[in-house]
Amino acid sequence: QVQLVESGGGLVQAGDSLRLSCAASGRIFSGYFMGWFRQAPGKEREFAAAIIWGVGSTYYAVSVKGRFTISRDNAKNMVYLQMNSLKPEDTAVYYCAASTFNTIGFIGLYTKYDYWGQGTQVTVSS
């Protein structure tokens, strides 16, 4: 069993930065995929970024590549999402998620993720 708790959301202006944190409790195995997803009002949940816990390989959605950076601290069981050059279209609830069995081809598919945090709101004003 894995529990995830996000923090770090808030209201910022376009061009600002934010760092989201995800505290994971329970055993995180090296093969787990840890992801960040987001959901804007009236829209489906979409993939933002993911990292493979053991090797640290990272993957990004095209919409955030070059602006967002996902990282993890294995010792602290933490996952981070550094978000730079934020845009109004980045406004959403951001969720941390863990996938216990996945492949690279499905890394962005939210149904492959087994555990979810409660989400943290990020609002970017223009």
SSE layout and pairing:
Elements: E1 3-7, E2 10-13, E3 18-25, E4 33-39, E5 46-52, E6 58-60, E7 68-73, E8 78-83, E9 92-99, E10 115-116, E11 120-125
Parallel strand pairs: 2-11
Antiparallel strand pairs: 1-3, 3-8, 4-5, 4-9, 5-6, 7-8, 9-10, 9-11
Core attributes:
single chain, 0% helix, 126 residues, 4-stranded antiparallel β-sheet, 7-stranded mixed β-sheet, mainly beta
Summarize the structure.
The chain has strands at 3-7, 10-13, 18-25, 33-39, 46-52, 58-60, 68-73, 78-83, 92-99, 115-116, 120-125. With 126 residues, it is mainly β.
**Percentage of helical residues?**
under 10%
Instruction: Report the total helices.
Output: 0
Radius of gyration: 13 Å
- Strand tally: 11
The largest sheet is: 7 strands, mixed
Q: Per DSSP, what share of the residues sits in E-state strands of 2 or more residues?
A: over 45%
3D shape: globular
Instruction: Please trace the helix and strand order, writing H or E for each element.
Output: EEEEEEEEEEE
Uncertain stretches of 5 or more adjacent residues: none
Distance between the termini: 40 Å
